[in-house]
Amino acid sequence: MTYGGTPRSRAIWSRTARSLSKRPRSTSCHDSVSARERVRGLQRRYVELWADRLREVHADLTSKRARAMAHAAFGMLNSTPHSAMLPEPEMSEMLQRMTLDALGVSGPGAVGGGS
Fold first, then answer.
1. Selected residue with higher pLDDT from 20 and 65
2. Has residue 61 been placed in a domain?
3. Tally of structural domains, the chain
4. CB–CB of 43/24 below 8 Å?
5. Cβ count near 83 (within 10 Å)
6. How far apart are CA 91 and CA 39, in angstroms?
């Protein structure tokens, strides 16, 4: 997968993608309170990681807006499995392109050939 944009923005998103492969998994409702608190803490750090990367690409973003953008991107991607109307490879490519476009990190050479 390529992200287009400047070499700096490609490096930022590449670093983020590597970090995200270690993201926390959800827990069931039967887990202990401390386990739920730990997961919430990991989820907050996950959002902050994305928000930090967004602010590296878009220097004018406030922390609050960057976190809102990260949550919005997660919401779009997490709701999609329930409405997959295309074959998996096509749906995956479309979602990657839409998410990058929504986050303002797409451009020539990005997934889907954004303009």
1. 65
2. yes
3. 1
4. yes
5. 8
6. 29
